[in-house]
């Protein structure tokens, strides 16, 4: 009887041990599962963090690209403004030159008009003077004609005298 009891006790102990082992195995499995889950969660978190970092980097790159584009646009606008200012300055200079040329032309025209007026006045004065001289010299015209004839005769005589002197010199030199 005692042997039977001992065997049963042994069997019970064995069963208990088996149960304990099973429980330990289950616990170990659960722990392993928990560890795996934790690792998976950590991996997921790491992946999420990496994705977030990548997204942040992409956003930063996009922002940098946008900033660069904005800077380029600003530079282009500045260049366009400078070109427009230069064109405006050139146009203003051309307009000023045209105005100066027009003023010079007007001055030249005024000077020409003044000269024409002066010439007309001078011509009128000359005509008046000639008329007065003619009126004065008309009574003296016969006397002037006589004086002119006398001068012509004197010139002819002088010429003859000169020819005679030249002839005498030639004859004297020949002899």
From TrEMBL:
The keyword Transmembrane helix applies. Keywords: Membrane, Transmembrane, Transmembrane helix. The chain crosses the membrane at residues 12-34, 40-62, 69-91, 97-119, 126-148, 154-173. This is Uncharacterized protein. It comes from Dreissena polymorpha (Zebra mussel). The lineage of its organism: Eukaryota, Metazoa, Spiralia, Lophotrochozoa, Mollusca.
């Amino acid at each position: 009887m005692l042997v039977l009891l001992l065997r049963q006790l042994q069997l019970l102990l064995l069963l208990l041990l088996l149960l304990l082992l099973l429980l330990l195995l289950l616990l170990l499995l659960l722990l392993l599962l928990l560890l795996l889950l934790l690792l998976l969660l950590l991996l997921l978190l790491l992946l999420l963090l990496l994705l977030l970092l990548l997204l942040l980097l992409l956003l930063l790159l996009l922002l940098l690209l946008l900033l660069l584009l904005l800077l380029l646009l600003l530079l282009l606008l500045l260049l366009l403004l400078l070109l427009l200012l230069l064109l405006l300055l050139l146009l203003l200079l051309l307009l000023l030159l045209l105005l100066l040329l027009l003023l010079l032309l007007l001055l030249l025209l005024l000077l020409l008009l003044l000269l024409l007026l002066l010439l007309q006045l001078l011509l009128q004065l000359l005509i008046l003077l000639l008329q007065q001289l003619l009126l004065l010299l008309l009574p003296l015209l016969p006397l002037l004609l006589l004086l002119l004839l006398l001068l012509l005769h004197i010139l002819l005589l002088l010429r003859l005298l000169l020819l005679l002197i030249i002839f005498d010199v030639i004859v004297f030199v020949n002899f």
